[in-house]
Design brief:
Oligomer: single chain
Order of helices and strands: HHHHHHHH
Largest sheet: none
Low-confidence stretches: none
Number of strands: 0
Length: about 170
C-alpha cells in the first residue's frame, strides 16, 4: 500500500481544526489507537479506502473526502495553490480564472475536434490536450469554490452533495 502524502496533509489540517474533536476521540471512533492515527497524519502509515472513508466521515471534512476520492478512484480533487490565500474570495477568483482560461480555448478547441484526427496539425493536437487540462483545473477550482463558499455560509456541503447525489447522481 502506497502512503498518500496529500491525504496525510489534508488529515493534518482537519485534525488541527479547533472545531475538531481530539485525536484520541477520533481514533477511538475509528477503532484505532491514537498512535496509529498519528502515524497516518504524519504519512508514516499507509491507509486503505475504509480508513480514508471513515476519517472523512468522522471529521465531516469535504477536502479530506476529495483527497480520498482522488486516491481511491482517480477523481479530480480540489484545487490547491500554496502561493495564494486559502479563503472564499481566493477560491471565487480562481474558479472564474480557470473558467475563463478554458473558455478562451473553446472556439479553437471546437475547430480542432471537428478536424479528422489524421488531418490535425501539431498545434491542434496540443490545443486539445491543453483544453482538457484546463477543463480539469476548472472542475477542481469548482470543487474548491463550492466547499469554501459553503464553509463561509455555515452550510455542511456534504449534506448538499448527498442530496444532489440522491436526486441526480448516477
Amino acid at each position: 500500500m502506497k502512503i498518500d502524502n496529500k491525504f496525510a496533509e489534508q488529515l493534518t489540517l482537519a485534525l488541527d481544526d479547533p472545531k475538531s474533536a481530539s485525536q484520541e476521540a477520533i481514533a477511538q471512533l475509528l477503532f484505532m489507537s491514537a498512535g496509529q492515527l498519528s502515524r497516518i497524519k504524519n504519512a508514516t502509515r499507509a491507509t486503505d479506502k475504509s480508513i480514508r472513508v471513515g476519517l472523512a466521515h468522522v471529521l465531516h471534512d469535504v477536502f479530506l473526502a476529495f483527497s480520498g476520492a482522488r486516491n481511491d478512484y482517480g477523481l479530480l480533487s480540489f484545487l490547491k495553490d500554496t502561493t495564494k490565500h486559502d479563503d472564499v474570495i481566493t477560491s471565487l477568483f480562481r474558479q472564474k480564472k480557470e473558467e475563463n482560461d478554458r473558455r478562451a480555448l473553446e472556439e479553437s478547441f471546437d475547430e480542432a475536434m471537428t478536424t479528422k484526427k489524421e488531418l490535425r496539425s501539431p498545434q491542434q493536437i496540443l490545443l486539445i490536450n491543453d483544453y482538457f487540462r484546463e477543463y480539469a483545473e476548472e472542475i477542481m477550482a469548482e470543487h474548491t469554490d463550492i466547499a469554501k463558499k459553503a464553509e463561509y455560509a455555515g452550510i455542511n456541503v456534504q449534506d448538499v452533495f448527498d442530496k444532489a447525489n440522491a436526486n441526480y447522481g448516477g
